[in-house]
Amino acid sequence: MSVLNPKFSAQMQLTELQQKIQQTAARMPAAATALPAQAYTDPDFYQWEVEHIFHKQWLCIGHISQVPKPGDYVNLDLLDESISIVRGKDNLIRVLSRVCPHRGMDMMPPGFGHPTEGNRRSFLCPYHHWSYGLDGSLMGAPEMQQSEEFVGGASQKENREKICLPTFRSEIWQGFIFVTFDSQLEPVSTHYARLLPYLERWNMAEMNMVANLKWECQFNWKVLVENFMESYHHLGAHSKTLEPMIPATGTWAEPELANGIVCHLPLAKSIVEKMKSGQPDQMFAAPSHLQASDRERYSVCLGTPNFLLFIGPDRVYWYLLLPNSEREMTIHTTLLVTPESQELPDFDRLLDREIVALKQFHLEDVEVCTAVQRGLRSSVYTPGPLGHLEISVWQFQQYLARQIQAVTNK
Ligand code: FES
Ligand SMILES: [Fe+2]
User: Fold this and answer.
1) What is the pTM of this model?
2) Residue 128 CB less than 6 A away from ligand 1
3) Distance between CA atoms of 242 and 197, rounded to whole angstroms?
4) Residue pLDDT, tens place only, 20-68
5) Does the Cβ of 138 fall within 6 Å of ligand 1?
6) Is 295 in the pocket of ligand 1 (CB under 6 A)?
7) 137, 195, 216, 223: which one has the fewest Cβ atoms less than 10 Å from its Cβ?
8) Ligand 1 atom closest to 104 (CA)
């Protein structure tokens, strides 16, 4: 009787799935199909993605307007890391670990009443009251005078510098805060250089985040990315909300960029006419350097793997995507507007209206994405053909196939 080595068998399945993904991506657009269901349901493939995608690339985790003043911080949980984005007294934004270097406590664990954002002068670990500055340096550790680490050998100052909250490598680009676990990765500005022409006119570093809604979701991160990047589903999922304003027909994709995908979503003719006649529905104040074409369309933009923007003539929606497992993720749907918008006399009313709309169309997406994840578990589902309005899904497949190729070629 032969006994299967479960590890070996899992490896075989992972390799086979990766080959299937590559074969799917290799089809020409007119023959494109959806990916095999296991790409969204297989825990081994998810672990592979964590190791080879999320641990190797730039991940967008915040916007500078979330931490405008020294001491401002925002906590988030990214993969297995407990993180705090903090603006220091020196005005630098750092991405610190919340894990105390004493016995490893997450100093502000979710679910125990700790605020997830705010302003602080220092960090205090609740376990044994070690304290840290906003730059992560150790400030105090009570009753540790008999530990060699504090008094022996080297000077106390040197020891103190050694014991600190670890800092993750981070960079700011276009107002967004990016982190990476890879010390060798090229700078963000190089990595996303080809996306710049589609973003820079919005001057997003000057914009302010005015809404931030958190959602715990029961679907794979790629289900959300694919949904975000194709507008074909406006016909169905958003037939009453987005479709009348941004019809699915007429949307189109730029050729795939290095580390990015961009699609354009022209506004409905009736809306453009209204805008030209000077009587649009009330809008936020537009960024000042937009071109004429920017005012007549929305665009969706993916900086691989998780930087998602939905850009309109008077606003930017940024989605913070935090994968938790092969079938769970946390999303923050956020809205950014120009500072001039916040000066509008009825800004509060306008914002309330837009938050209601944001919740409504996002709930429509949550329903279809949750239901897709359910459907992908079915034994009778085989991946169906993609249409021309889903070219960005095919482009995303190219990206995934390249990641697999890069690892298998090593
Ligand atoms: S674990 Fe933080 S002070 Fe002990
Ligand atoms: Fe949608």
Assistant:
1) 0.95
2) yes
3) 25
4) 999 999 999 999 999 999 999 999 999 999 999 999 999 999 999 999 9
5) no
6) no
7) 216
8) 1
261 C-beta neighbours (distance < 10 Å), count: 25
pLDDT band at 2 (very low <50, low <70, confident <90, very high): very low
- Please work out whether the CB of residue 261 comes within 6 Å of at least one atom of ligand 1: no
Per-residue CA distances from 258 to 255, 262, 400 (Å):
10, 11, 13
Ligand 1: residue whose CA is nearest its atom 3: 128
Q: Would you call 175 helix, strand, or coil by DSSP?
A: coil
- Distance from the alpha carbon of residue 366 to the mean position of ligand 2, in angstroms: 8
- Domains in the chain, please, with CATH? 60-170 (2.102.10.10), 195-406 (3.90.380.10)
- Amino acid at site 131: S
62, 114, 116, 124, 166 from 111: Cα distances, Å: 21, 7, 10, 18, 23
pLDDT tens figures, 141-159: 999 988 888 875 555 667 6
Q: Are 322 and 330 in contact (CB under 8 A)?
A: yes
Q: What is the pLDDT of residues 355-380, one digit of tens each?
A: 999 999 999 999 999 999 999 999 99
CA 143 to ligand 2 centroid distance, Å: 55
Each residue's pLDDT tens digit, 294-330? 999 999 999 999 999 999 999 999 999 999 999 999 9
For residue 261, give the nearest of 231, 229, 298 by alpha carbon: 229
Ligand 1 neighbour 366 (Cβ under 6 A):
no
